[in-house]
Amino acid sequence: MSHMSSPRARSKEEFRDGQGERMSAGYSPSYDNDKSVLAFRGIPISELKNHGILQALTTEANEWEPRVVSTEVVRAQEEWEAVDTIQPETGSQANSEQPGQLISFSEALQYFQTVDLSSFKKRIQPTIRRTGLAALRHYLFGPPKLHQGLREERDLVLTIAQCGLDSQDPVHGRVLQTIYKKLTGSKFDCALHGDHWEDLGFQGANPATDLRGAGFLALLHLLYLVMDSKTLLMAQEIFRLSRHHIQQFPFCLMSVNITHIAIQALREECLSRECNRQQKVIPVVNSFYAATFLHLAHVWRTQRKTISDSSFVLKDLEVLAKKSPRRLLKTLELYLARVSKGQASLLGAQKCCGPESPPFKDLTFTGRSDLQPHSS
Fold first, then answer.
1. Residue 22 forms beta bridges with which residues?
2. What's the mean pLDDT when you consider all of the chain?
3. Among 2, 138, 200, 335, which is least packed, fewest CB within 10 Å?
4. What is the Cα–Cα distance from 175 to 49, expressed in whole angstroms?
């Protein structure tokens, strides 16, 4: 991941985080004179974990731990280190069990619909428990309850969010490989553990360690984003934005956080009205995830956010997403319609405005050339 060098970005200072731990030298923060806020610029994503920023982005699960077995990880690493590349992708007509074959969202979802998830289902709490005035207020003024016939589908979503990543499961591996290939354009499989996952915005060499609070649902959301023809372009452009030399952010880790917001919105019944209207749960949650990611990208680019702003951006994003899910979904719908006609792009300079589409006028994305470092 490239970054821009500057004299002050190379000062040999040592910084300390909130716990007093010494942070690695070699990079220093620069100040934005327009906003007078601390902004980490020109720091590779792999280096940010030394500054404690990526750890702060990692969401904590409610009574959930990922299934990570040390011996399993070691065995998988040994197997993959002995292989440079696996068989190349052979096209959609190949046997689904053949290495290198991409996996669709529907196929991955079908897998979870057929395997035994009873042990994970016991952990879910479908809705937020409210008592006293909060319960009364929610009953009187809150969203409607999810229709009875949709609750099994909702529980499946929440159950998948309790499942960890199993590197020994072929389907899990294919999901990871597909995400990697669609984002990077690679035609070959990659190791399931390695530094290349940091290039996609995971904290380290093992993606499983970043799924706390969202589980395998976080990977299914990424799979949906890259395998749906309507959202693939959006996914690729957000990924390019995440690799910007100033505004870089960990793409996959940010996506996990957005999946966590979607889980909370579902449990707090913020999506019930839309689910009841469409008589579906999974498509609504998928679209809500994509719409929330789109809004984050819009805020990130137009407000010139950097990695040091991430926690604030995510907090504001969660409030907005839960309060106005229908508005976000409508914005996504309009955006994708314009993208399909070549009229809108996250990194394009076109402005979406005019009396014919007032809800979309707020989504005015600037061109890549518009984002230059602030003058000192």
1. 16
2. 74
3. 2
4. 25
